[in-house]
Amino acid sequence: MKLTDNVLRSFRVAKVFRENSDKINCFDFSSNGETIISSSDDDSLVLYDCQEGKPKRTLYSKKYGVDLIRYTHAANTVVYSSNKIDDTIRYLSLHDNKYIRYFPGHNKRVTSLSMSPVDDTFISGSLDKTIRLWDLRSPNCQGLMHLQGKPVCSFDPEGLIFAAGINSEMVKLYDLRSFDKGPFATFKLQYDRTCEWTGLKFSNDGKLILLSTNGGALRILDAFKGAVLHSFGGYNNSKGVTLEASFTPDSQFVMIGSEDGKIHVWNAESGMKVALLDGKHTGPITCLQFNPKFMTFASACSNMCVSILNLMIQHICI
């Protein structure tokens, strides 16, 4: 089934999970869409089965905390940042709950973490004003970039380039093979004093870049020219919360939650709002992602619950 305006308007909450005692700070779908893993400020990692619609397993990272959780290319391993003790990134085997490797280097909180879509490379951005490149097979940083401001960063869908949003006013594009030579493109945007950039994502077709903020506005850029194609607003975020925005897998729509528990959906090409959905959340929707394979998406709020929305109330996946 293809996503259309009417299909998106038909999504309803199918499952609500309340496994956590503190807010969910991140989650990630596996590449096959069969599982989703969440990280929470209660130091837990909860693995959910998307096909059966139930939690599978809960693990804990009590000593170091857990944030920005990301699946690697193996469905049973993840990397995540720490929010206690230090700012080391950790590589965990879900199978036996053992650390495979540590990635030390950042000396302030990690705010961006992105796995390459094609290999074992990943990048991280931190409040220490650096971006680091890593390889899962080595604890040593493979590349280090000192920047003029706080970065957000992400790989493109082919894993050949990565983008860095710096100081909430410019986007720089780097070739992964020659990043040390500097960016091959720089897009300077009008600075908005009312908010900061909190996330950067490419669309799956590689043509668009989505910039999310801690304010009430999103921007879509042309990934080749840097032109601002659309600015989206009209959703509630009066308290400066970091709200995750996402593309649908077909790159046709943009979604974000809001502090009143509603989910706003726009057409990425026309810029028109096409849906306003009730996520059944009582707090701000801080995490929102569409399943890469199934007609399902998940949202999570500061009130410790995850909602799974799809077209059919009876089934988690179709």
UniProtKB/TrEMBL annotation:
CDD domains: WD40
UniProt keyword Nucleus, yes or no: yes
Top-level lineage group: Eukaryota
Entry's localization field: Nucleus
UniProt GO BP: DNA-templated transcription termination; lncRNA catabolic process; negative regulation of DNA-templated transcription, elongation; negative regulation of lncRNA transcription; nuclear RNA surveillance
InterPro entries named among the record's database cross-references: Swd2/WDR82, WD40/YVTN_repeat-like_dom_sf, WD40_PAC1, WD40_repeat_CS, WD40_repeat_dom_sf, WD40_rpt
GO molecular function, one term: chromatin binding
Record-linked PANTHER family: WD REPEAT-CONTAINING PROTEIN 82, WD40 REPEAT PROTEIN SWD2
Protein name listed in UniProt: WD repeat domain 82
